[in-house]
Amino acid sequence: MLEIIYQDEWIIAVNKPANMLVHRSWLARHETQFVMQTLRDQIGQHVFTVHRLDRPTSGVLLFGLSSDAGRELSQLFEQHKMKKTYHAIVRGWIEGEGVIDYPLREEHDKIADKFATGEPVTQSAITEYKTLAQVEMPYPVGRYDCCRYSWIELKPQTGRKHQLRRHMSHLRHPIIGDTAHGDLKQNRGAAEHFGCQRLMLHASMLSFIHPFTQRSITLEAGMDETWQQMLQQFSWAR
């Protein structure tokens, strides 16, 4: 059963579990569980997707309860009127806070986009980051005799594919558990020493003006067991 974190007559939001697809896809024909279908069965009515989270990412996922609501919410995303806050654990020590203004070339999936025409274009991409905590642990990883991690807050100002993962990789502080843009040795080390078997990226908060009531809405999603274990092992308070 999905954790519902907000519901009214127009919209509903859940805390998406890590490694669960948002909806059915021919790219994952053998999967049997999807957020959209699970939520529909749970509340007994159709829901309409307005945005997505990558399969390995957990956190706030918003749906419309009608096609009209879905369309209004989608427009808020398209107009950059949704304020998104993520948390991540990354390799190494990243200091302070700042803005990553680094354009990203469109990523075409070898299967899903195999019929795409034209060359991928480079698009502007901006992410704000802030370091919350750092730790050094006495476990060897790769050529290092210890491992360092940072807990950071991320606020994307644009919505490019894998933007947060690619931006952190660009800074040489890839997100732990990222198999596409990360450090495989660090991923193996985190799995071996800390039991971390997933991407450590969580969509913690979503804020917007409700398109039907004009009220300010802030949705928050709690962190799952893996996150809680990592924070505890690193003595980071949440």
Key traits:
alpha+beta; 31% strand; tRNA pseudouridine(65) synthase activity; 10-stranded mixed beta sheet; 12 strands; single chain; RluA_PseudoU_synthase; globular
Helix amount, in percent? 10-25%
Task: Please count the helical segments.
Answer: 5
**How widely separated are the two ends?**
25 Å
Number of strands: 12
Q: Beta-strand level of the residues, as a percent range? A: 25-35%
Give the class from helix and strand content and strand pairing.
Answer: alpha+beta
Task: Evaluate the radius of gyration.
Answer: 18 Å
Summarize the biggest pleated sheet: 10 strands, mixed
Q: Regions with pLDDT < 50 over 5+ consecutive residues?
A: none
Instruction: Determine the mean pLDDT.
Output: 92
Could you spell the SSE succession in H and E letters?
A: EEHEEHEEEEEEHHEEH
- The global form is globular
How would you portray this structure in words?
The chain is α+β, with helices and mostly antiparallel strands. It has five helices and twelve strands. Strands 1, 2, 3, 4, 5, 6, 9, 10, 11 and 12 form a ten-stranded mixed β-sheet that branches. It is globular. The two termini are 25 Å apart. 31% of the residues are buried. The model has no long low-confidence stretch (mean pLDDT 92). This is tRNA pseudouridine synthase C. One of its GO terms (molecular function) is tRNA pseudouridine(65) synthase activity.
Write the layout of secondary structure elements.
Blueprint: E1 3-7, E2 11-16, H1 35-43, E3 48-49, E4 58-64, H2 67-78, E5 83-91, E6 97-101, E7 104-105, E8 122-123, E9 126-137, E10 147-156, H3 163-170, H4 184-194, E11 201-209, E12 216-220, H5 225-233
Parallel strand pairs: 4-11
Antiparallel strand pairs: 1-2, 2-4, 3-4, 5-10, 5-11, 6-9, 7-8, 9-10, 11-12
